[in-house]
Structure prediction request, 241 residues.
Amino acid sequence: TAQHPLLEVSSIAGGYGDITVVRDVSFTASAGRITAILGRNGAGKTTSLRMVSGLNPISAGSIRLGGKDVGRLAPHARTAKGIAYVQEGKRIFRQRSVQENLMLGSYPLRIPRSQVMKKVEEAFDRFPALAKKRDVAAGLLSGGQQQMLAIAQALAPGPKVLMLDEPTTGLAPAIVGELFDLITRLRDEGLAVVLVEQAVDFCLSIADEAVVLNLGQVVYRGDAKSASTRGAVEATYMGVE
Ligand code: ATP
Prediction:
């Protein structure tokens, strides 16, 4: 069957004010697959995800979800349509309880409290370690648990696309493994995952597709496991084009 990519990002451009950071970025994400986005610091990975989530505007190109243009919708509207974005650095409300953080995850859906609570309970079923700490302030959780909470919060609205920005940064190796197991499981459940990671080898080992950015442009797209992908990634990280 000809599988239509769920998310189609085509030649987007944008930046901050007058500064263009992303010049020409295209990638796709499909149900049940992980798309890795790689590239050196400053390549435009975070900015690209911000544009797909709606936090930054696009000045050119298009963003389609299930064939429909979403590139000019507000962030909460994109969340409601199924695009979830876990920002770099565990953006959770540290003073709020774990349960309150999960409740806020469904806020963009504008649904009644009873339905919000149902989604919170679903999150606790998936993350039993968080269930044990439901009344604890999120800032008191371990780094790994804070990242799990950020992901659980993003999953609460029931997204189709999950974009993760450097989820393993600052985590102990054992926790990194746990996190990658979770990401793989979510992929296997049918989510379209977009993963930006510093841990390149780890990332390529679980990814299906790889996109390499340099100076705001795509310099390589290919199967994550192919030797030519490794070559392209190494060349880019060493600054050779
Ligand atoms: P990193 O791994 O460092 O996050 P990245 O590939 O995600 O790298 P971006 O964060 O998208 O890269 O940054 C791309 C460029 O945009 C960098 O040169 C950065 O300095 C610039 N930039 C990022 N945020 C802003 C901002 N708020 N205002 C102006 N320039 C910014």
